[in-house]
Amino acid sequence: MLPTRVVTSIGAILVCAACAAGQSISSPDPITGTERLKWFAESTVGPASLAGGVISSGWGTLFNSRKEYGPNWDGFGKRFGIRLSGVSVSNATEAGLGAIWGEDPRYIPTEGQPFWNRMGHVVKMTFMAQNRDGRLRPAYSRYVAIPGNNFLSNTWRADSEATLSDAGVRTALGFLGRMSGNAFQEFWPSLSRRFHKRDRLLPASTNSQ
Predict the structure, then answer these.
(1) What DSSP state is assigned to residue 63?
(2) Is residue 159 part of a domain?
């Protein structure tokens, strides 16, 4: 059986989706086939995804978790490959089903809004997607993709992490990872501009001393 924390997480997902269903957001034109392919590529082998894979695989190798893979470069490669294969399956499923069901997998930032409004948007868009009419509805393709990938990956994972409980925990972490990615897209552009602005001001301040 799935642990209580996983069941609780799934319940929270459904509650968030129900509360936000039917709302609309300010967004670009409906996603095209080319843009959907671009989203799949960037989400799978883009810099952020690959960096996340290096960090998680390196962490697992450093502490040799799970021990079947080994604390060496070979183990790192296995961990990285398992993660990449799972991400590929998940993103391909979300992109494919989303195309059929009219769901846009992209995250639409709300820059210029109050901080807590933006945080709420980050959480909401973890569980919601925009349809062809620009209205929000539960991201059904994501609900299939993330759990489906994590339970399917039990077939190629080490036995010690190929249980239903492990797959359920990975599913919850998958939604948490999606939320973290949304937060990065929401806040990093404004933070980056602030850092660049500070860097431009530093020489002037230094010369005036």
Answers:
(1) T
(2) yes
For residue 28, what are its two tokens? 């670009």
Domain count, the chain: 1
Structure tokens at 91: 């993103």
What tokens does 128 get? 């919601």
Residue of 129, 149, 145 lying closest to 137 (CA atoms): 129
pLDDT in tens, 18-30: 444 445 455 568 8
pLDDT tier at 111 (50, 70, 90 boundaries)? confident
Angle at 59 between CA 126 and CA 177, to 5 degrees: 0
Cα–Cα distance for residue pair 178/173, rounded to 1 Å: 9
Say which amino acid occupies 95: A
Residue 52's nearest CA partner among 153, 180, 189 is 180
User: Phi then psi for 198, rounded to 5 degrees?
Assistant: -65, -40
Q: Reply yes or no on whether the pLDDT at 117 is more than 70.
A: yes
Q: Which domain holds residue 26?
A: 4-204
Closest CA to 146 of 113, 109, 179: 179
Q: Residue 209 falls within a domain, yes or no? A: no
**Cα 205-208-209 angle, rounded to 5 deg:** 95
Closest CA to 95 of 86, 104, 84, 87: 104
Q: Provide the pLDDT for residue 19.
A: 47
CA distances, 136 to each of 33, 100, 132, 161 (Å): 20, 16, 10, 35
